[in-house]
Write a structure and sequence with these properties.
two-stranded antiparallel sheet; globular; 199 residues; single chain; six-stranded antiparallel β-sheet; mainly beta
Length: 199
């Protein structure tokens, strides 16, 4: 069985800007089936690893299908390779992949996380920010196509007050736990396990 051609980029495709993303669409995320739900039926706090909240990898629906999220590309030369205009597109027969087992998935609507804002407080150990820092962050969804799936999206965290300062300047892990806690709560609030019939 070959990898689905409908998922691949095409030479005339482009990377969508933030303004071009349809916020009425849903994003789909694959997780271990045993970690999908908590005892109340909501998304489990353990469904997503802490390190992944700052760069959450998802597929957009439509045009992908929920079952597409369970295809895992195993070809070392392309499995972490992003696509951009002009990138070489692999042939379906050359893409090695497996269909994951014991995994489930959940969905969330882009408009429920796009431009989501939170405030964090932490003590920075960097000399340029050697104080208690209180700052806002914004969660944004960006189009990040892979060479084997055009419809791949990721979350991005931005700090409006420190527009020209890379996040690493705040000191290793000093801000990540605070952001992760807020984003986890938000994801639990907006996650669903089935799509509306109109999608």
């Amino acid at each position: 069985m070959y990898y689905p051609k409908r998922l691949l980029p095409k030479p005339d495709y482009k990377v969508l800007s933030r303004e071009e993303i349809n916020c009425n669409h849903f994003l789909c995320r694959r997780v271990d089936i045993n970690l999908l739900k908590d005892e109340t039926g909501k998304l489990s706090p353990n469904a997503v690893d802490d390190v992944e909240y700052l760069r959450l990898s998802t597929n957009i629906i439509p045009p992908t299908l929920p079952e597409d999220i369970h295809l895992i590309v195993t070809s070392d030369r392309i499995k972490t390779k992003y696509w951009e205009a002009g990138s070489q597109i692999p042939k379906c027969k050359d893409i090695e992949f497996i269909r994951s087992e014991n995994t489930g998935h959940f969905f969330f609507k882009i408009e429920h996380i796009q431009e989501f804002k939170g405030t964090i407080k932490f003590t920075s150990k960097k000399k340029e920010f050697n104080a208690l820092v209180s700052t806002d962050f914004i969660s944004r969804i960006v189009h990040k196509p892979m060479v084997y799936i055009y419809y791949h999206y990721e979350s991005l965290i931005e700090f409006p007050e420190f527009e020209n300062v890379p996040a690493k300047s705040f000191g290793k892990n000093t801000y990540k736990a605070a952001i992760t806690h807020i984003l986890r709560d938000r994801l639990i609030e907006i996650a669903v396990f089935s799509l509306p019939s109109a999608v």
